[in-house]
Amino acid sequence: MNRTHQIKRKQTALITGAANGIGYELACIFAENGYNLVLVDRMAQKLAEVAEKIRKQFGIFVKPIVKDLSLQTSPEEIFTELQQEVIQIDVLVNNAGFGIHGLFHETNLTTELEMLQVNLVCLTHLTKLFLKDMVKKGEGKVLNLSSAAAFQPGPLMAVYFATKAYILSFSQALASELEGTGVTVTALCPGPTESAFHERTGIAGARQAESNNMMDAQTVAKIGYRALMSGKTVAIPGLKNRLLAEIVRFTPRNLVTKIVKNMQEVK
User: Is-contact 146 167, C-beta < 8 A?
Assistant: First the structure.
């Protein structure tokens, strides 16, 4: 059986930021449910290890693509490579993203521009590229990783919070546009999650990061997968996070901002 036939035989999910955390857990869930996978990450060795592990464990086709999504050319390169190999994407999971902690006037501009490219521009670009074919064939799913941070401003992580607000708004708007097409868009909005995210952003010592209420990545991934499969537009894992998302709607914005700033401060 050739590879092209194998890919057409099963549905295929593309997952960015798949080498660890929520992305890795989502990859395992999709594989367990019979999907072939295209896994994208910038960490070549880790990605190769993950791809081989999933391939052996679940007996599916796994294509790893090493890409730095902070580069503007990456989305087109991914799309072109898959077209050349006749790999059709049925589910797009825009999971890749990162944050940076600190006062905006002191943080590194280059890093922040890269964050905008990964969290916001790349997500939009990939969605644009793959959505057209989904609509044309009348079926498909998109899962965008937003955050509980999307519901309020985030002092000391101003740009990161803003990118997550964009993702939530963008996803909700697309979900409305696509009603009746057979294609759904879901925004997953987890709160603090156990992963390497906090070390990379520099908030490992922040009050929020030291909370004992963090969810594990596997639980978040399972909630996201179920929401995606059911066509839900917004999924907020955890009762506390769902309540907070509602409360901030009725709380004065300046008070919400002060509370978030207090949570983000490093002790």
Answer: yes
State how far the alpha carbon of 231 is from the alpha carbons of 50, 156, 170, 171, 182, in Å: 28, 34, 16, 12, 10
- Give the length of the chain: 267
Alpha-helical regions (H) of the chain:
3-9, 21-32, 44-58, 74-84, 109-116, 123-137, 158-177, 197-201, 217-229, 239-247, 253-264
Q: Is the pLDDT of residue 7 over 50?
A: no
Number of domains in the chain: 1
SS3 annotation, 70-96: CCCCHHHHHHHHHHHCCCCCCEEEECC
pLDDT tens-digit readout, 40-55: 999 999 999 999 999 9
Distance CA(79)–CA(87), nearest Å, equals 10
Beta bridge mates, 129: none
Give the tokens for residue 36. Answer: 């072939």
What are the backbone angles phi and psi of residue 86, rounded to the nearest 5°?
55, 50
- Structural domain containing residue 189: 3-264
Predicted confidence at residue 179, as pLDDT, reads 98
Query: Per the confidence metrics, is the pTM higher than 0.85?
Result: yes
What sign does the CA torsion over 27, 234, 153, 250 have? Answer: negative
As a whole number of angstroms, the distance between CA 6 and CA 117 comes to 33
Strands of the sheet with 183-188, listed across from one edge: 62-66, 36-41, 12-16, 91-94, 140-145, 183-188, 234-235
160 carries an active-site annotation: yes
Q: Residue 47 is part of a domain; what is its CATH number? A: 3.40.50.720
